[in-house]
Design goal:
With about 110 residues, the chain is mainly beta. The chain is built from two helices and six strands, in the order ββββαβαβ. The strands form two sheets. A four-stranded antiparallel sheet has the order 1-4-3-2, with no helix packed on it. Strands 5-6 form a two-stranded parallel sheet. About 5% of the residues are buried.
């Protein structure tokens, strides 16, 4: 996490049923922003965000296996649709992407 913030607007009390809604606000080459809202019924209790970064050269299944671990599969929050998923599958990795930049409406149309 490279940046985060929150704003509390109303109290939540013991026994309240809370709803947490998270959305991907944007995706860039090495960062993405998640935004969160916590509500009790119709009352918004808090809003927050986080900007996360990743380094694709360090996120390697081989490093896990080299340390004695076993990689059963790879889960990506957002498939940036730049060929990474296909490349991993081509070498026998199981990959699950929860969504894509196209599905989020964030694919560069330029």
């Amino acid at each position: 996490i490279v940046e985060s913030g929150s704003r509390f607007t109303a109290p939540a009390r013991y026994g309240d049923v809370l709803t947490i809604r998270s959305t991907v606000a944007w995706v860039k080459d090495k960062t993405f922003r998640m935004e969160h809202t916590i509500s009790a019924g119709d009352t918004v209790c808090a809003n927050g965000f986080e900007v996360r970064a990743w380094n694709p050269t360090r996120a390697k299944a081989e490093a896990v296996e080299g340390a004695g671990g076993k990689v059963l599969g790879i889960v990506a929050v957002v498939d940036r649709e730049e060929g990474g998923k296909d490349a991993l599958e081509a070498v026998g990795r199981k990959v699950l992407a929860l969504t894509t930049v196209t599905a989020l409406g964030l694919k560069d149309r330029g």
